UniProtKB/TrEMBL annotation:
Belongs to the class-I aminoacyl-tRNA synthetase family. Residues 459-532 form the tRNA synthetases class I (E and Q) anti-codon binding domain. This is Glutamine--tRNA ligase. Transmembrane segments: none annotated. GO terms for biological process: glutaminyl-tRNA aminoacylation. Its EC number is 6.1.1.18. Residues 31-326 form the Glutamyl/glutaminyl-tRNA synthetase class Ib catalytic domain. It comes from the Bacteria.
Length: 556
């Protein structure tokens, strides 16, 4: 297993497992698994679940498996398999082996036959509605199915006929024979197999019956030699069924299911159902939309694997469902980016500035540091000429007290360059909009050239008009409104209408020409940005803002 930093020693899951192993050890190596269903894309919560199983195996020098839970042909596809493998590799969690639940179809079916032969399972003809009615409630016991008393011979014959495709979907199911009066609803003769007449993406039309997750999963774990089957806490009530299956099938030293809390992130949607709805309705730009917490979306947004892993390690293992604030994830991202990201100047809302006493047609290259945090990132040359652009909000014609940027008759420093003074404001005669500033510069105030004279309080960034790279810049906010949630038919009401703002004609310094997709930069004063891996072209670079510069987490 690769060397990823591990969690703190005092986590409850690690302690629980270590305590168990101290008095009830396995006689095989530690082995854990991550069992995604290939019907969608991984998200930040998936990354948390992966880390839980991966880190436990790593701590005990064991094995970590990726196993696709592909026992429902109606929703699964190779597209999702490939995406999951790619995302896990990008995130840094390399499995020791990759398996598919569908590879165990014969073994799982033989297990079902064994239960029938033992009188532990039976074929039931109740409809889905009747099954729910017979099941009872949390306060009332269930009622035995009228088909529960079928003979072993009848059940074996019917199961084989069901396997051969003689019955339509819904006509029959295979149920475990446990206890219809159990206080645990999951033990009230749960369904083990159902009929689905559909082509499976891997096995084709070889099967028309498919096992339920609660039946297939413990068998798959046992076949692979899993020691700890770690899953989210909503499966805690399913654990007795997991153990029942393994016990009745006679597995010695069976895997142990243990549960942890599910992770949610503020302002993010992690439900596959609602993400799929947003994708289908065009609310977002596919499963990799930078506003989504899918790993593909986070990657496209510019989040790094290191920052995601660091965020997950800080959370540690949780016992119940918990919600982490997005600001904590952003904090870890900034910590990761600040020492390895080149800072460049980018003007998002340009205002033209003509330096009247600078040589017309002249140009010089100024050397600027690539980072104030890391000198090892070196320097770059930035062209300076007579006409430049500054941010429109870095100029105010009638500034209030305490305003230190550019205004008529005042001076500011151009970052890495000279002092300029605003002498004239040129406006559109029809609208009164400010179109241009006429300024003069002081050639003796070159930044970084030994200047130690007078000072100014304001420094603003700029780009040379003749050398600027035009780009599209996308600014993001959380997809959900504050304190909103997505649920029910009215889920659209929780969406933030300002989650995406597109700046069509931003101007960037020419250093950006060297960027390749997924390169990250600090746009001075604007935040951290990444060159979009999906929409960028050489003619039209597109940058996504990852996070603003300000880190609010430490103030919480």
């Amino acid at each position: 297993m690769s060397g990823i930093s591990e969690d703190r020693e005092n986590q409850y899951m690690l302690k629980l497992i270590n305590d168990e192993l101290a008095h009830m050890p396995f006689h095989r190596e530690m082995c854990t698994r991550f069992p995604p269903e290939p019907n969608g894309y991984l998200h930040i919560g998936s990354a948390y679940a992966i880390h839980m199983s991966y880190s436990i195996a790593s701590r005990h020098n064991g094995r970590f498996h990726l196993r696709f839970d592909d026992t429902n042909p109606l929703k699964e596809d190779w597209e999702y398999v490939n995406a999951i493998v790619e995302d896990m590799k990008w995130l840094g969690y390399e499995p020791d082996a990759v398996y598919f639940g569908s590879d165990y179809s014969d073994q799982i079916y033989r297990a079902a036959v064994a239960l029938v032969q033992q009188g532990k399972a039976y074929l039931c003809d109740l409809t889905a509605e009747e099954t729910a009615e017979y099941r009872g409630t949390l306060t009332m016991p269930g009622t035995n199915s009228p088909y529960r008393t079928r003979s072993v011979r009848q059940n074996v014959e019917l199961l084989e006929r069901m396997k051969q495709g003689e019955f339509p979907a819904g006509a029959k199911v295979l149920r475990a024979k446990i206890d219809m009066a159990s206080p645990n609803m999951n033990l009230r003769d749960p369904v083990l197999y159902r009929i689905i007449h559909a082509t499976h993406y891997r096995t084709g039309d070889s099967w028309c019956i498919y096992p339920m997750y609660d039946f297939a999963h413990p068998i798959q774990d046992a076949i692979e030699g899993i020691t700890y089957s770690l899953c989210s806490v909503e499966f805690k009530d399913h654990r007795p069924l997991y153990e029942w299956v393994l016990h009745e099938l006679g597995y010695t030293e069976p895997p142990r299911q243990r549960e942890f809390g599910r992770l949610h992130i503020t302002g993010a949607v992690t439900s596959k159902r609602y993400i799929r709805a947003m994708v289908d309705e065009g609310v977002v730009d596919g499963w990799d939309d930078p506003r989504l917490p899918t790993l593909k979306g986070l990657r496209r947004r510019g989040y790094t694997p290191e920052s995601i892993r660091s965020f997950i390690r800080e959370i540690g293992s949780i016992r119940v469902h918990s919600t982490a604030h997005l600001a904590l994830l952003d904090h870890h991202l900034r910590q990761d980016l600040k020492t390895k990201t080149v800072g460049v100047m980018a003007v998002l809302h340009p205002l033209k500035v003509v330096i009247t006493n600078y040589q017309a047609g002249g140009m010089e290259l100024l050397e600027l540091d690539n980072s104030s945090e890391n000198r090892q990132l070196g320097t770059r040359e930035v062209p300076f000429a007579q006409t430049i652009y500054i941010e429109r909000d870095d100029f105010m014609e009638h500034p209030p007290a305490g305003y230190y940027r550019l205004s008529p008759g005042t001076e500011v420093r151009l970052k890495g360059a000279y002092f300029i003074r605003c002498d004239e404001v040129v406006k559109d005669p029809q609208t009164g909009e400010i179109m241009e500033l006429r300024c003069t510069y002081d050639p003796l105030t070159r930044s970084g050239a030994g200047f130690t004279g007078r000072k100014v309080k304001g420094t603003i960034h700029w780009v040379s008009a003749a050398h600027a790279v035009r780009a599209e810049v996308r600014l993001y906010e959380p997809l959900l409104l504050e304190n909103a949630s997505i649920q029910g038919e009215d889920w659209r009401s929780g969406l933030n209408p300002h989650s995406l703002t597109v700046v069509k004609q931003a101007l960037l310094e020419p250093f950006i020409h060297s960027a390749t997709p997924e390169n990250t930069f600090q746009f001075i004063r604007h935040g951290y940005f990444v060159l979009d891996r999906k929409d960028s072209t050489a003619e039209k670079p597109v940058f996504n803002r990852i996070v603003p510069l300000k880190d609010s987490w430490t103030k919480r």
